[in-house]
Amino acid sequence: MSSWRDRLQREFQASTSLPLWREAFLGVDWISLRMSAVYRGVGIPTGDHSAVVVIPGFMGSDQYLGDMNSWLRRIGYRPYLSNIGRNADCPDVLASRLHQTMARAYEETGEKVHLIGHSLGGVLARSAAVRWPEMTASVTTMASPFRGVRVHPFVLQTAFIVRGRIIQKNGRADSKPNCYSGYCSCSFVSALTEDFPASVRQQAIYTKSDGVVDWRCCINDDPETDIEVPGTHVGLAFNPRVYKHIAMFLAGEPVLKREDVA
After folding, report:
1. CB-based contacts of 141, cutoff 8 Å, min separation 6
2. What is the CATH number of the domain that holds 232?
3. How far apart are CA 231 and CA 26, in angstroms?
4. Is residue 11 assigned to a domain?
5. From start to end of the chain, where are the E strands?
6. Torsions phi, psi of 107, nearest 5?
7. H/E element, 120
8. What is the pLDDT along the chain (262 residues), one digit of tens a residue?
9. Would 246 be classed as within a structural domain?
10. 53 — phi, psi (to 5°)?
11. CB of 232 within 8 A of CB of 211?
12. Which run of H or E residues covers position 163?
């Protein structure tokens, strides 16, 4: 049987050679957000004060999603920090921390919780929705590779390093032999192989100019739930078009066509 190192190496070699240089345009998304009417709450429906948990991507923390949390509060929602810490640990551990946040939000509001996840955070959101549908109202993913590991080789190499740290922390190389790979049999990964609950609304936002993740791993192949926007992988967390889609989706409005999004 091949080791997890051999498996990760094969994934590294098979990964798409994505144009990482495109991520240099992140600043364009950030500036566009601050210049947009959407960021000021103009032209979008107001919220119903329901709970929204925003989940950071790989190697990120709640801090970089502060703009989205502040915006959600301004337009009438009750945002919650994910409190998963840095997204660079065993995903099953992170999912357990996310569950605690969801349970607190559900108890405090008395309503199901909306989940918004960026990149790997969206994969965590989908897994959580499958495991705890009774607490989940909807899931929005932003450039989240929930259909496979097809990412830039640099990201896979970073995952290799994170895997080594997990082994070191646990003290045994065989304690979680397949952690941080598609071969793991933990509850987090197992949930991703199950059917997504019909009771949970979903949308998958992606960009074909993604320089980190193969966008084909980020969609459902369903025009009713797949939303394409221009932009960068990291920049989707600051993209005004993404914000407008999120506002309309949370309010239960019809899916917008690209030309309808200013």
Report:
1. 117, 122, 123, 125, 126, 202, 203, 204, 205, 218
2. 3.40.50.1820
3. 8
4. yes
5. 51-55, 78-81, 113-118, 136-142, 201-206, 226-228
6. -70, -40
7. helix 120-131
8. 344 445 444 544 444 455 655 666 667 788 889 899 999 999 999 999 999 999 998 878 999 999 999 999 999 999 999 999 988 788 888 999 999 999 999 999 999 999 999 999 999 999 999 999 999 999 999 999 988 665 444 455 555 555 555 555 655 444 555 555 555 667 777 787 889 999 999 999 999 988 888 888 899 988 889 999 999 898 999 999 999 999 999 999 877 655 455 5
9. yes
10. -105, 125
11. yes
12. helix 153-170
Closest among 197, 257, 260 to 227, alpha carbons compared: 257
Kindly state the tokens that stand for 182.
């598609």
Identify residue 146 by its one-letter amino acid code.
Answer: F
Is residue 261 assigned to a domain? no
How many C-beta atoms lie closer than 10 Å to residue 202's C-beta? 21
Tally of structural domains, the chain: 1
Residue closest to 152 by CA, chosen among 7, 11, 18:
18
**Closest by Cα among 248, 242, 255 to 33:** 242
Residue 154 within a domain: yes
Chain-centre distance for alpha carbon 118: 3
Q: Which domain holds residue 194?
A: 4-251
